[in-house]
Amino acid sequence: MVGVEVLEDADTLAERAADLIGDALREKPSLSVLVATGHTPMATYAELARRDLDASALTAVQLDEYLGLGEDDPRSLWGWMRRSFVEPLGVKQVVRLGEVPDPDEGCRRFEAQVAALGGIDLAVLGLGPNGHLGFNEPPCGPGARTRVVTLTPASLASNAAYWGDLPVPTRALTAGMDVILGAGRVILLVSGVHKRDILARALREPPTPEVPASWLQDANTTVLADRAACGVTRGPAFP
């Protein structure tokens, strides 16, 4: 089941997302949170860091990571997650992707650690330009496991904006759709006019492997989208 909230702008979206995450943390201090990086979630994490929240018992779970990068590489998504979420909130428990040399072993270890947590309580996600969640690139079914993926040209082009002159790695690790869809709750953050078409496809069309985010229609999903992403100036976008 999907609920959609249309916010005035990206700042209001971040405040509302922080409200929801803060409420979940107060209700369950040992919350396990699947943490996306990317442009849109950053304002939410900054807003969370400004609030008086005790995240010392929270477990942050990494959503995705480029393959073959060291921890000190500026493109490391773990480094981005650590700087934006883990350190500012004082998180002490982390489940990471890509900690071991063998990627397949790393995926198995990740899934075992998530299972030991009892699954994900809350997944905080952004929406990729081709409908991907994490690096679950289309086509992708709802049962896709945590695995190594080859990034699509759309994802490479989108991610290039983050790294300046540095090349975007072409392969990555991603938490599987089974991990995402197994979360107790998903919050999908969508901002900007460039996400308008793919958001409409994800919410309005029948679920399809060609738009992995469309599988969220069958999960406990709250979509927080600004008016630019919804293409409306007043009133609800998706009744």
How would you sum up this structure, described in words?
This protein has 239 residues and is an alpha/beta fold. It has a single domain, classed as Rossmann fold. It is built from eight helices and ten strands. The protein has helices at residues 10-27, 39-49, 77-89, 103-117, 153-163, 177-181, 196-204, 227-230, and strands spanning 2-7, 32-35, 59-62, 64-66, 93-95, 122-126, 147-150, 171-174, 185-190, 221-226. The strands form two sheets. It has a seven-stranded parallel sheet with strand order 1-10-9-6-2-3-5, with helices on both faces. β2 (32-35), α2 and β3 (59-62) form a beta-alpha-beta unit. The longest helix has 18 residues, at 10-27. The protein is globular, with a radius of gyration of 17 Å. The model is unreliable at 235-239 (pLDDT under 50).
Please give the structural blueprint.
Blueprint: E1 2-7, H1 10-27, E2 32-35, H2 39-49, E3 59-62, E4 64-66, H3 77-89, E5 93-95, H4 103-117, E6 122-126, E7 147-150, H5 153-163, E8 171-174, H6 177-181, E9 185-190, H7 196-204, E10 221-226, H8 227-230
Parallel strand pairs: 1-10, 2-3, 2-6, 3-5, 6-9, 9-10
Antiparallel strand pairs: 4-8, 7-8
Helix pairs in contact: 1-2, 2-3
